[in-house]
Amino acid sequence: MPIESIFSFLTYPKNHDKAEEKIEGIHIKPDGGKLSKMLAEVFDSAKSKRDVPVTFDAANQVNETREQLLAFFDAPKISTARRLARALQDATPGTAGMGLFFVCLGSDEGKAGARVVLSRFAAEEAVVASKKGGALSVEFVEQVFLKNAHTYKAASYRHEAGKADAWKGVATDRQLNHGAKAIADYWIVDFLRSDLTTTAAEGTRRLAMAMKNASRGSVDRQVRGEIVAAAKLAPNLPPRAMTIEQFCDQFAMSPAAKEAVKAAVKPARLIAESFRFDADEFHKHAPYRQIELDNDVTLTAPTDTFDEVLQHRKVGEEHAFATRGRIVDEKLRSNR
Fold first, then answer.
1. Which of 56, 104, 200, 265 could form a disulfide with 66 if both were Cys (CB 3.0 to 4.6 A apart)?
2. Final residue of a domain: which of 172, 196, 220?
3. What is the pLDDT of residue 18?
4. Residues 111 and 211 in one domain
5. Cα–Cα distance between 269 and 272 in angstroms, integer?
6. Which residues contact 30 (CB under 8 A, 6 or more apart)?
7. Alpha-carbon gap, residue 20 to 9, rounded angstroms
8. Which residue, of 147, 166, 196, is where some domain finishes?
């Protein structure tokens, strides 16, 4: 469906000299031109692996950004859109630079209510310096926007009048192929005041259990070795957004190892859910690495210190392990 209203603002990082000035904006009527068509592509963009479900954080059922969003839904005009632009500017770090912010309102065929897409595109200093007259113009907006039309951050929300909705949305970062490793925290956490819908604990636990079950269930020694190696290095990962498939890609797992991990995720749709990796939670559910030898000896030690407490060397076709320590317990078991 066509976009009904477009509002655009030039925003600066929060510590920029011009950050305290009034944010310049313009109301652009969709006219079928190049700018409108490009924004329509953003508005109607197909689901991507870089899209993540997000939920507004709430204190006593109140979230400031959501309140600003609802105010815009109720009265879509430049003053209500500017409040969202101000919130973005107040959350933007200096490393993100200047940006061109769009608030686009429209609807989807066959669905009740309206939908808003918030998007931010990088603005280069040289282009900004060419602006004249102290105000935005359609020509200036096109100049900045079309230069970076395929690299942007966005978030989409739906609202039906009279309903307590718009708590959940979808955020994306189409700048991931241009140096960024994950959706910037300032976009989701600081501006949208949100978090991923799948919690860090829930998503990390799901990953750890899938890796543990895959390593136990695979008959391929190489696959098991890859999974164990990834588990050993996993605690070094930063707490950033990822899916289980992206985790496997992070450690360059072979197709066979990746499929083994993915096959252990039930239901399969959860493979594509994003979560923020939590190293401590991962260690809770995959704390031990185990090796079984053909002489019926099983060696078990914490995953992250296995190679430190068990010295390993190869002797021909066999493997020799050595360790030392005080005996603190001894027991018989009916199984391994």
1. 56
2. 196
3. 81
4. no
5. 6
6. 2, 3, 4, 5, 6, 36, 39, 40
7. 14
8. 196
Q: What is the pTM for the complete model shown?
A: 0.66
Question: What does the pLDDT read at residue 179?
Answer: 36
Burial 313-334 (b: 16+ CB within 10 A, else e): eeeeeeeeeeeeeeeeeeeeee
Q: Give yes or no: residues 116 and 220 share one domain.
A: no
- What is the reported pLDDT for 49? 65
- Per the structure, the complete domain to which residue 116 belongs is given by 5-196
Per-residue confidence at 101, pLDDT binned at 50, 70, 90?
Answer: very high
Burial class (CB in 10 A: 0-12, 13-18, 19+), 22: exposed
Domain match, 39 and 58 both: yes
> Do 112 and 260 share a domain, yes or no?
no
Amino acid 99 reads: G
Given this model, what pLDDT does residue 328 score?
65
Q: Point out which residues pair with 319 in neighbouring strands.
A: 314
Examine the domain organization and report whether 121 and 207 are in the same domain: no
CA triple 313-284-292, angle to 5 deg: 30
Claim to verify: residue 278 and residue 300 sit in the same structural domain? no
User: How many structural domains compose the chain?
Assistant: 3
DSSP string, 21-55: SPPPEEEE---SSHHHHHHHHHHTPPP-TT-EEEE
Q: What pLDDT is stored for residue 289 in this prediction?
A: 67
Does 161 share its domain with 218?
no
* Paired tokens of 259: 């499929």
Same domain, 271 and 301: no
